[in-house]
Design goal:
By secondary structure, the chain is mostly helical. Helices cover 79% and strands 0% of the residues. The chain has three domains: 50 residues, no CATH class; 172 residues, no CATH class; 160 residues, no CATH class. Helix 5 runs antiparallel to helix 12, helix 9 packs antiparallel against helix 10 and helix 14 packs antiparallel against helix 15. Keywords: Membrane, Transmembrane, Transmembrane helix.
Length: 412
């Protein structure tokens, strides 16, 4: 969005089209670019238009408020369904936790971006198929494929949210990058909401304790569970109706933690060499190693998504971080290959092998684009596109693990 605004700043018709396609995203991007455009009269007019009356807290349209209330109540209802129908909690939550929130967000962004009825029907059919499939999978020992399906299915639903966020287009590169920004803003908003809810919970329980009522169990079973289900819905509502509310917080967090992650990774790799621990023979250590890898990869994604200017220092940090992460990924990938060669293929090893291979290819691609931006041979916008272009591929891999692995490995 930032690059498009800069390229079309003297084209009123094109700017109006960009604004109408994504009003919150346009406002966020334009306000970030405004310090560079102060001398442009057209930019000054747009700034006044976008920020007139911005001191007033907006609560969105009536339709958006209905979504927040109705969606929150529906999420709370789905979260309490096991208690109402006497279902097994472990069975219900492990298999269906993604269906508590994600379908509501899919419906919201589908309506917001006016996707076609045909696309909406396909999405609804896929979700019904997924619900039936995940609850049909047999419980067996070992149940590696079931566990993998339960882990990857929410990621499939998350990618469907991204699909509707992009207006129902798989190749909406800028929209996928905007989807990552939305996730960063949503994460910040959810943390703030949870902190406020935690303080309210402590005060409420403490006040009732003073008058002799012990409400912890009832409060947790109803208020806490329902509240946790509603937090992503409320957070999404706030990020969409108040796009500038946390839009400046996520970039600051990303910029602060990128160099911290780089230093931490370098220290960690050094200590690992002398600790005697290795992911080749220690399964638990390999799992933690891959968890670290996923966390750093996520930080790189969000940092690239939030980098709006050609800040060479930040680009350099991201480049070094990607190089070190490639080394970490290489170690993890070689450890998985070693374990497969020694003890054979299993569902877990196959899933980790595919994920590590995909992440390594993605990191190499991002690293090349960061090098181009660092040497000024290419634009920073290409780095963002390098992140966005792989997101649909990750979605396909998650779908393979969820729907094909149980069949390929005989439901074991």
């Amino acid at each position: 969005m930032n690059e498009e605004i800069l390229l079309n700043i003297d084209k009123p018709r094109r700017l109006e089209q960009l604004y109408r396609n994504d009003k919150p995203g346009f406002k966020t991007a334009f306000n970030a670019l405004y310090p560079q455009l102060r001398d442009n009269l057209l930019a000054e007019g747009w700034y006044q238009r976008l920020n007139y009356g911005s001191d007033d807290l907006s609560w969105g349209t009536p339709e958006e408020r209905i979504f927040m209330v109705g969606g929150s109540l529906l999420a709370a209802f789905l979260a309490k369904l096991p208690a109402m129908l006497s279902l097994n909690n472990e069975f219900y939550y492990t298999r269906n936790i993604g269906f508590i929130v994600f379908p509501i967000l899919i419906a919201y962004f589908g309506q917001k971006n006016t996707i076609s009825w045909k696309t909406a029907a396909w999405l609804g059919g896929l979700m019904l198929l997924a619900i039936g499939y995940i609850n049909w999978l047999p419980q067996s020992k070992p149940d590696d494929t079931l566990n993998l399906a339960c882990i990857h299915l929410p990621l499939c639903l998350w990618s469907m949210v991204g699909f509707t966020f992009g207006g129902g287009k798989v190749r909406a590169g800028e929209k996928w990058l905007g989807f990552l920004r939305y996730n960063g803003d949503l994460l910040v908003m959810m943390v703030l909401l949870l902190i406020a809810a935690g303080i309210t919970t402590a005060i409420t329980i403490g006040l009732f304790e003073l008058i002799g009522y012990h409400i912890q169990k009832v409060y947790f079973n109803y208020v806490v569970i329902c509240g946790l289900a509603a937090v992503p819905i409320v957070g999404t509502f706030l990020t969409q109706v108040q796009p500038t509310l946390v839009s400046k917080v996520a970039p600051v967090i990303a910029n602060l933690f990128s160099p911290v992650a780089l230093v931490m990774l370098l220290i960690y790799l050094g200590v690992m060499i002398f600790s005697g621990k290795d992911p080749y023979h220690d399964r638990e250590f390999l799992l933690l190693f891959n968890g670290l890898l996923v966390g750093v990869m996520s930080l790189i994604f969000f940092s690239v998504a939030e980098t709006t200017r050609k800040n060479l220092a930040q680009v350099a940090v991201l480049f070094l971080l990607s190089v070190v992460t490639i080394l970490v990924n290489g170690v993890a990938l070689s450890a998985v290959v070693f374990r497969i060669s020694e003890w054979g293929i299993t569902p877990n090893r196959a899933a980790v092998l595919g994920a590590n291979g995909l992440m390594l290819a993605h990191l190499l691609y991002i690293c090349l684009k960061l090098m181009g931006a660092l040497t000024r041979k290419s634009d920073l916008a290409l780095v963002g596109k390098s992140v966005a272009i792989f997101l649909p591929i990750y979605s396909v891999w998650c779908a393979i693990v969820t729907f094909l692995f149980p069949v390929l490995f005989g439901f074991r």
